[in-house]
Design goal:
Largest sheet of chain A: 6 strands, mixed
Helix content of chain B: 40-55%
Strand content of chain A: 25-35%
CATH architecture of chain A: 3-Layer(aba) Sandwich
Number of domains of chain A: 1
Strand content of chain B: 15-25%
Distance between the termini of chain B: 34 Å
Helix content of chain A: 25-40%
CATH class of chain A: Alpha Beta
Largest interface: A-B, 35 and 31 residues
Mean pLDDT of chain B: 84
Oligomer: heterodimer
Number of strands of chain B: 21
CATH topology of chain A: Rossmann fold
Structural class of chain A: alpha/beta
Largest sheet of chain B: 6 strands, mixed, barrel
Distance between the termini of chain A: 28 Å
Number of helices of chain A: 7
Strand order of the largest sheet of chain B: 2-3-8-5-7-6
Structural class of chain B: alpha+beta
Shape of chain A: globular
Chain lengths: 233, 842
């Protein structure tokens, strides 16, 4: 489902090149789940962005759902995202001028769909917000907003779901409930899950864990392997 | 497409009122274009519809001298029905108003003029009493109200008394503005002789009006006889000529006002672009999310382009409606300046042109900030610090800049009477905007570098607002400065022209002129002046003469010569020349040598000619001329060329003869004197006119009053148009403040959280807007002073007036407007509960 080979990202910072990700490689099968962890500035979000086709690598190859997205134009990558990818962001990223239901519908509408919002309504029911469908983001609590974002992430039946610190802005209980919901829905829909988090409890629920440090993978742990595999000493 | 429309509609939800306000920036520009365009269509239609009424006849023939038997026979041979008018300036006395006097334009009429259109008076029967030849007069309405004259009152013209039978409301062929120069009085032609006013030297205009059978081709007729008219030194006007002249004037005025309207539109469009820029910045997160969810670059861009287009459409449509409303209000403003009635109708082509111009300009200016949406990276959704991809220059941006330049050039060249004028306008616009924008940047820079660190906090914060990120200094200085510049330039030009005539600071110059003084009246006049204590400042004998030949060619030959570049008026006119031994204070010889005396037997008289006339007539030193001095030929040679300061109120002349040449010719006099007060002037005029009824007087106060009246009329119209730019500037200001309101709110809340009082926050705003207003006013006034100096130097050939009171008033007004708009647009910002805002931020 997702294959990453020798992925490198270099930015120009104050005129000098700054490599934030160095030759990262891994691959995920359909239905897998991967947690990317590491300290701030270790390159987690950059890796997520590259895997999801939000940015282009400086070197290396990213293949998503059988398509090599690293060489695609921005519009082609947008199509791939619309067809295969779902997102959940740390700060929810709901569009403030749209109601909860409209926010969930956007990915469908981008495909040219128009009609009764059965699928979107069903997903809002599923996340427990059927009664709040006409509310605007500002009228919802943080947990509720994140649940709307989760419904939106699944509305186009994505093959892969990317979550960037999905519980980072939520309190303990709400974060716990949110984590359960993400994994439940992921199981129900058989999507591949890639999440970036600082929360080690959340990370341990994934079948695989990549630990980054200074842009490099320093640990690649799989749930079926009892020993930690150190990629780089 | 449906996604784009749906998303555009939804996305605008929270901002529709704000977007509507942004759209108002172009409302006035479009309104001006629609109002002017549609009104011009009304005028053109009125000219077509009332064509014959414009002249009141099929043909009008005019001459500066009484018709010779030859000319009369020629006119009679044209056939048709004739009417006559003799017009000249003279004094009227109002016996019932304490004998007050006034210079008027007297029209003695005979025949059924006007043949077309109506001679309207109040009461209505007055024209028939004129036609019957009674000793009655019709007076200009303003003259009657000014002197408290009623129907039935007597007036005295020369030695005759007439009874006022009506007030003039309208007569074809002349606009009421004519009355501003000299109010008209109509009397029967048959009564003219008994007034004794038509003496030698009176500056008279003889007119003959014709009405031909409907089938007559008047244009053809005059074309065939053009040579004959020239030979007889007769001028003529046909309906077609009058129509073309008026049409051309209307096209020029239309072009001028359309370009003024376009400045407002252009300014408004900059305001829209600036507001959309802020709007787009606030929408970057939304765009990034849309991109993450699969929207392509152009699709996200289209969502906002649709909003921009709708905004432009709303602005253009509201502008068109307002334009039509303004069009309704224009006729009363310009009624007195037009020689015909105007019917109101909406010109849909003008409406479409205005709306089209508004949409195109708004669209192009909106594109500029919107283009950046294409470059917003979806990464922004997960990393706010990832701004849009601005690393490389966007070629489309340059394409849009080029399109804007093209649109401005095309519009200007299309509107202007000549393409050079259109390009000149574009150049002037670019320079004004460049200077204002450059100064604004300089101000921003100064605000950053020159603020004293020990200044009070509210001052430092207020000044810091002028240069901090996302400041609006350039836009606001542009918007307010341009409006100030236009209005103040108008005011200064007016002051310059009036000052030029007034001769500011010189209280020794003559300010009262008596003319049409016959040879035997000069002694009695001098006596009256002496009795009244008025000093005789200048006295000049005047001898009338006409040109016979120029450098050996007769005037007739030159007039017939199609290739001649000498203006016909210089050849046809009656020259009113003087003779004296010295130059006056208003004259300076610039070439040759002035000869002050010749012997009466001299065969060729050495004369001095005025510079401008010499240039027109292509005459140089040593060239010869032959004059016809009331039947006696006189040869002359150009001995010197003089520069004459015409605007001084002293008798000035084109041709100056030496003593010894003209003393024996029939002559009359002009006398310049000085009256210290208006009461002295009135008393002196009354004394002279009652003793010497044919003598006319004109005083400086009257000229100033007349010019002021004309200025007031024109200025009302011009300022009305300039106001569009000013109000657009205010709307742009309000829009800019509202577009940055969110940022202001946040800062104000933070400051309040840190302990700032409401009073301190308001004072920070007052400091900021006062400085902005003051800078805009100073920059606008400085540009206006510069423009006025250039106009004064190159157009009016004088020094530009500074009018410190006008400038101070303008500065105060601009500061007040800026402060009021700024505080009103920011109201509520300091009153928001901090918690409410801080909660929204999380």
């Amino acid at each position: 489902m997702l294959n990453v080979e020798r992925l490198t990202k270099t930015y120009l910072s104050a005129g000098a090149p700054l490599t934030v990700l160095k030759e990262v490689s891994f691959s995920l099968s359909a239905g897998d789940s991967l947690a990317i962890v590491g300290p701030s500035g270790s390159g987690k979000t950059t890796l997520l962005g590259l895997c999801a086709g939000l940015d282009r690598p400086s070197a290396g190859v990213v293949t998503l759902a059988g398509e090599e997205i690293g060489r695609m134009s921005e519009d082609e990558r947008a199509r791939v995202r619309n067809e295969h990818v779902g997102f959940v962001f740390q700060n929810f990223q709901l569009i403030p001028t749209l109601t909860a239901l409209e926010n969930v519908q956007v990915p469908l509408e981008l495909r040219g769909w128009s009609g009764r919002a059965t699928e979107a309504e069903g997903l809002l029911e599923r996340v427990g917000l059927g009664a709040r469908r006409d509310h605007y983001p500002v009228q919802l609590s943080g947990g509720e907003q994140q649940r709307v974002a989760l419904a939106r992430a699944f509305v186009n039946s994505p093959k892969i779901l990317f979550c960037d610190e999905p519980t980072g802005n939520l309190d303990g209980d709400t974060a716990h409930a949110m984590t359960d919901l993400i994994f439940e829905m992921n199981r129900e829909r058989g999507a591949t899950l890639v999440l970036v988090t600082h929360d080690i409890e959340l990370a341990r629920q994934c079948r695989r864990l990549l630990r980054l440090k200074a842009g490099m993978v320093v640990e690649d742990l799989r749930a079926d392997e009892p020993e930690t595999k150190a990629v780089h000493p | 497409m449906s996604f784009v429309l749906r998303m555009a509609w939804r996305d605008s939800r929270a901002a529709r009122r704000r977007l509507a306000l942004y759209s108002f920036s172009i409302v006035l520009g479009v309104a001006a274009l629609v109002a002017i365009g549609s009104f011009s269509a009304n005028l053109n239609s009125a000219i077509e519809g009332q064509a014959k009424g414009l002249l009141g006849a099929d043909l009008a023939v005019h001459s500066r001298v009484a018709l010779t038997p030859e000319a009369k026979a020629f006119l009679d041979s044209l056939g048709g029905e004739q009417a006559r008018e003799v017009a000249f300036s003279t004094m009227v006395v109002f016996p019932d108003s304490g004998g007050r006097t006034r210079l008027v334009s007297l029209r003695a009429m005979e025949g059924a003029y006007p043949f077309y259109g109506e001679f309207l008076t109040n009461p209505a029967g007055a024209p028939s009493r004129l036609a019957a030849g009674e000793a009655v007069a019709v007076l200009e309405e303003t003259l009657m109200s000014q002197f408290g004259v009623k129907v039935g009152d007597p007036i005295r013209l020369g030695t005759s008394t007439f009874t006022v039978v009506g007030a003039l409301r309208n007569i074809p062929g002349e606009s009421a503005a004519v009355a501003m120069l000299s109010p008209r009085i109509f009397i029967p032609y048959s009564r003219l002789a008994e007034t004794g006013l038509l003496g030698p030297g009176s500056l008279v205009r003889y007119k003959t009006y014709f009405k031909f059978a409907a089938a007559t081709d008047v244009e053809r007729l005059v074309e065939d006889l053009r040579g004959r008219f020239r030979e007889l030194r007769l001028g003529f006007d046909t309906v077609e000529e009058r129509k073309n002249e008026l049409g051309q004037s209307i096209r020029n005025v239309d072009a001028f006002f359309s370009l003024v309207g376009f400045v407002a539109l252009f300014l408004g469009a900059i305001g829209v672009a600036s507001a959309i820029h802020v709007y787009v910045r606030q929408r970057i997160a939304t765009v990034a999310v849309l991109r993450c969810l699969g929207a392509g670059a152009w699709k996200s861009f289209s969502v906002y382009l649709v909003q921009g287009l709708l905004l432009g459409l709303v602005g253009a449509v509201v502008g068109a409606v307002l334009g039509v409303a303004i069009q309704v209000s224009l006729p009363p403003l310009v009624k007195d300046l037009l020689p015909f009635d105007v019917d109101f109708f909406i010109s849909w082509s003008a409406v479409l042109r205005g709306v089209g111009a508004g949409l195109v300009i708004c669209f192009l200016f909106t594109l500029l900030p919107l283009l950046s949406i294409r470059r917003v990276s979806p990464l922004v959704a997960i990393r706010a610090s990832a701004a849009e991809e601005t690393g490389s220059r966007d070629p489309l941006r340059w394409a849009v800049f080029a399109a804007i330049a093209m649109a401005v050039i095309v519009f200007s060249v299309w509107q202007a009477p000549r393409w050079q004028v259109g390009l000149g306008f574009v150049g002037a616009l670019a320079v004004s905007f460049g200077v204002l924008a450059g100064l604004a940047r300089g101000v921003s820079w100064c605000a950053r570098c020159l603020v004293p660190q020990n200044a009070p906090y509210v001052w430092r914060q207020g000044i810091a607002n002028l240069h901090r990120p996302n400041n609006r200094t350039v836009l606001l200085l542009l918007a307010l400065g341009l409006g100030t510049f236009l209005v103040v330039t108008l005011a200064l030009t007016r002051a310059t022209l009036l000052a030029q005539i007034q001769g500011v600071g010189d209280n020794q110059r003559p300010n009262l002129l008596f003319f049409d003084i016959q040879d035997d009246q000069i002694g009695p006049l001098q006596k009256i002046l002496h009795q009244e204590g008025a000093e005789l400042k200048a006295q000049a004998p005047i001898v009338t003469m006409r040109l016979r030949s120029l450098k050996g060619r007769t005037v007739e030959q030159i007039l017939k010569d199609e290739g001649s570049r000498i203006p016909a008026w210089t050849l046809r006119r009656e020259y009113r020349s003087t003779y004296r031994g010295t130059l006056s204070a208003t004259e300076k010889v610039i070439a040759g040598e002035f000869v002050g005396k010749v012997s009466p037997e001299a065969a060729v008289i050495p004369i001095s000619i005025e510079r401008g006339l010499a240039k027109d007539m292509q005459l140089g030193l040593g060239d010869t001329l032959e004059f016809d001095v009331q039947g006696v030929p006189m040869a002359a040679r150009i001995a010197s060329i003089r520069e004459v300061e015409w605007r001084r109120m002293e008798p000035n002349f084109f041709m100056l003869f030496p003593e010894g040449a003209l003393e024996a010719a029939p002559k009359f006099y002009v006398v310049a004197t000085r009256a210290e007060t208006p009461a002295d002037s009135a008393r002196l005029q009354q004394a002279v006119v009652s003793a010497l009824p044919n003598v006319s007087a004109i005083d400086l106060a009257l000229i100033l009053q007349t010019l002021d009246g004309i200025f007031s009329k024109i200025q009302v119209v011009v300022q009305f148009m300039a106001l569009f730019t000013v109000v657009t500037g205010v709307i742009v200001l309000a829009g800019a403040i509202l577009s940055g309101r969110h940022q202001r709110l946040r800062e104000s809340v933070l400051l309040r959280t840190l302990g700032a009082s409401r009073r301190q926050l308001i004072r920070i705003q007052v400091v900021e807007y006062t400085i902005l207003g003051a800078l805009a006013a100073v920059v606008g006034c400085a540009l206006a002073v510069g423009a006025n100096a250039l106009l004064a130097h190159f157009v009016f050939e004088t020094a530009g007036a500074l009018a410190p009171l006008t400038l101070a008033g303008a500065v105060a007004a601009v500061i007040a407007v800026t402060l009021a708009t700024g505080l009103l647009s920011s109201r509520g910002v300091v009153d928001h509960p901090p918690l409410e805002v801080l909660r929204q931020e999380t």
